[in-house]
Amino acid sequence: MNRDIFIRNLTGDRIELSPKGRNANELSVEEFESCYENFFDMIFEVAATDISGLTGYGEFDENNQAPYATLKEFIRETFNENQEGYWHNWTQMFGTTFLKKDYFDKIYAKAMQYADFCEGQRFLANNNTFFCNMIVGADGKTYCADWGRAGIMDFLMDFAILDLNKPYLLVPEKLYAYAKKKNIEIKNFKERFLCMAYFKGIATLMWHASIDDLESCESITRSINELEERMNKLAD
Question: pTM for this one?
């Protein structure tokens, strides 16, 4: 089944798959400050999708199935060097690109350290919420325009991607306050956010290293390195 049709059937009329409006990447810091709750509302609406008929974790495969039994398996197999396609033997990049083995291993170990906190956290996630992939409609609502990497995982992945993309917007700090205001309980918030952020962080770092995008690699590394200190400043 076509991915868009699958997502439409899964979500009903709650998600617009062909949104019209302004690309979210064009928003200024001030504009995001005035409308960030719309981004958060959208992610929580996606996460509220009934996935009781689906099993597993991970990005949907060609059969629209989440292929992994656990979150840890999803993380581990994402970085399997024996996979087919673009990432076959990807570890060869350690000697030829910005990506360094000791740094990758350190952040991978942190993602796996926190992964236990994400087990059982199964939600529909867009998994590609970079600002360039989102649309802000004339009514102020926010929409995801690309569902090609959607899957089943902790919904905090979608927030972690927002922050990885533009850490100066202080997404986890805003989310912490938003959840308190809305009386939304996010158990083990710090650990789960860090797991998703470290996981997606090194996956994104791999991609930009593979195309020799040094500027993006440096930005991603800074974001990863600063995140835990930021999270520690949030009240328990």
Answer: 0.96
Task: Give residue 228's pLDDT.
Answer: 96
Q: What pLDDT sits at residue 235?
A: 63
List the Cα angle 108/113/115 in 5-degree steps.
Answer: 90
At a CB cut-off of 8 Å and minimum separation 6, what does 231 contact?
A: 172, 190, 193, 194
Dihedral of CA atoms 57, 61, 63, 68 in degrees, nearest 10, equals -30
**pLDDT at residue 35 greater than cutoff 80:** yes
Can you give the residue ranges of every domain in the chain?
Answer: 3-54+68-232
Tell me the CATH class for 3-54+68-232.
alpha beta
